Amino acid sequence: MSTPTPHTPLTAASSHAEEAQKCADLQVLANARELTAAQSRWAQRLAAAGLHDPEIFVEPLSLGCEPDNMLVTEYEMRHGTPPITQTLHRVIVNARTALADADMTRAVVDCLPADATWYGTTRAGRAEPGSGAACNVRL
Fold first, then answer.
1. What is the mean pLDDT, run by run of 10 residues, along the chain of 139 residues?
2. How many domains does the chain have?
3. Most CB within 10 Å of its CB: which of 17, 64, 97, 121?
């Protein structure tokens, strides 16, 4: 059995083995029309960033379940008024990738409209729309 040397080339099979199923799960405050318009380019941009077979979900969130949302609070502090044309959305992207979690999050955020604010993270596994929203928590 041979020992690989530092100069052993990386093969497609070995790079594919490093891929994992991951999920970026973000809350986004953005203009709904701008967010919808941007979505038409997401699959191509995510694939170019290294996300394979992305499943993309965007769903509106109600402030009735989370009245003190930090994105809304930050907007009010910055602009002195509540958001009028911006609405809250949950953005979920499930994909296979070899990217680090922070890099996958950045790839998804790079697809958002320029003035969108967001928070969230990437983790191993998958998420389904509606499964993690504040209104859906059951004790």
1. 41 58 96 93 96 94 74 92 92 97 98 95 92 46
2. 1
3. 97
